[in-house]
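Notebook B, p. 112. Complex prediction, attempt 2.
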Amino acid sequence: MTQLALVIDLNVCVGCHACVTSCKEWNTSGVAGFLTDENPYDADPTGTFFNRVQTYEAGAYPDTETVHFPKSCLHCEEPPCVPVCPTGASYKRKEDGIVLVDYDRCIGCKYCAWACPYGVREIDERQQVMKKCTLCVDRIYDTALPEAQRKPACVLACPTSARLFGDVHDADSEVSQAIRERGGYPLMPEWGTQPANHYLPRRRTGCGVSEEEVARRDGPLASDGRVPGTLAALIAEAEATASGGR
Amino acid sequence: MKPAFSVILLTTLIGAAQGLLVAVYGADVAGRLGFTDAPGRGFVVTGAAIAVVLAALGLLASFWHLGRPERAWRAATMWRTSWLSREVIVLPGFLATTFAYGAGSLWGAAWTPLAGALALACCVALFVCTGMIYACLRFLQEWASPLTVLNFTLLGCASGFTLATALAAFGLADDHAAALGTWAIGLAATALAVRAAMLARNARLRPRSTLQSATGVRHPRLAQTSQGLMGGSFNTREFMHGRSRAFLRGIKWAFLVLAFPVPVLMLFLGLLYGSVLLLVAAFIVQYAGLLCERWFFFAQANHPQNLYYQVIS
Ligand code: SF4
Ligand code: SF4
């Protein structure tokens, strides 16, 4: 059984909102019709989006950490939004686990939005039907697109590759590995919704070069015939060259 | 949550209609079984008719809540999983059986008791469906309790019995007014006890979701600096009532006073002095109190999604 999902790396997301705009662009021009905006160029602009990027701050000044946090439908494996829908408009696809809304069946009762703890469903104020992330179901299977582009618009747009896309039920997929090896976690696990989307936590970043890596005999610098000394010696040599050259 | 007036009207109107049906059918059955004198055809027919009108108004109000009312019939399809869908089926069922019960009583049809029993069954099912729509949402902790269903049932019955008392005293079943009024007072008292238990429970609730569990950022000091949008969205409109704590407290006291002690006193005095006017006023005051109660019921529920929508920057 396949469960497509996004894995979002909070360690590299820079909060640029490229995923938000590309999502809006793709999905407002899609087969399902536009995503309503009201007063887009006026006071109090408001509109329907599938994806939002939020920002949080941890710690107290001056020891703070800023976390940019993209959020869209998590395509839960136990989606509480689906069984409550009285019309069957909200459903979860068996073949790939994507949770979708059939806009032709939705009566706009908003009950599904009440039943989603994550605040990712938005009613389209013009069309009066419920909308939410589709994982770009209308492009990931489109054989008219080059294979590399059969991914959600947000994933393709992300300049830092903070968004990974794939099957979280396939243990060897990029997303499963990322979840396993980089501490992937779900949001609000307390409600048993089992979100398919996962987040990768912030990590401490540092310089990963050790002295030994530079100094060893089979190091890449050995190829020019000079066997490098210690890192300190290398730096001293570099500094000498720099000052001598002036 | 943001209280939707359409849903407030729906739940209070059908609640009163259901309570009225219980009262009328109860008096009818008590008469048939010989416990009391039969309440008279006029009382049963008028009672059932008013119940139908109130429930129909409620149904109308529910359409107003829908974005696409023209597709409302589709809502009857998912009754296997959705309490809302079940309500959508049972409410017309209640209307139809109550209508049949009233019509049968008018013509003196032999199947009237059957229609009445079916109406009662629909009535009970409707109370359960309406309450469960809210009680089944587990992360709306204020609602996720059997008390929600009990509260809807008792408040509906209390207001329905108050209305039935006024109706009986109107000359339709004078000798039943005292008994119905006593029931109305007893139901209001029980409802108050349940509502107070709900308030006490909700005051002690601790939200299971926190900003930490919502984002997975496990720092004790965590705050949102931007919700990612500036002009508001469905998420900032639908899930927050936007009123002050003082306003909320005011509404709470309004319903605690208007829905319980005041109508009880008016019922008592109305029966004591045989004043129909006072009994009708008791129903109106109680209904106003129930509007406040339902507003508060919605406003008090704290949706975990609100954790994500705190700060504009
Ligand atoms: S994130 Fe919300 S809308 Fe998406 S599947 Fe889960 S409960 Fe449903
Ligand atoms: S708003 Fe639409 S999708 Fe959501 S529960 Fe109602 S009918 Fe179903």
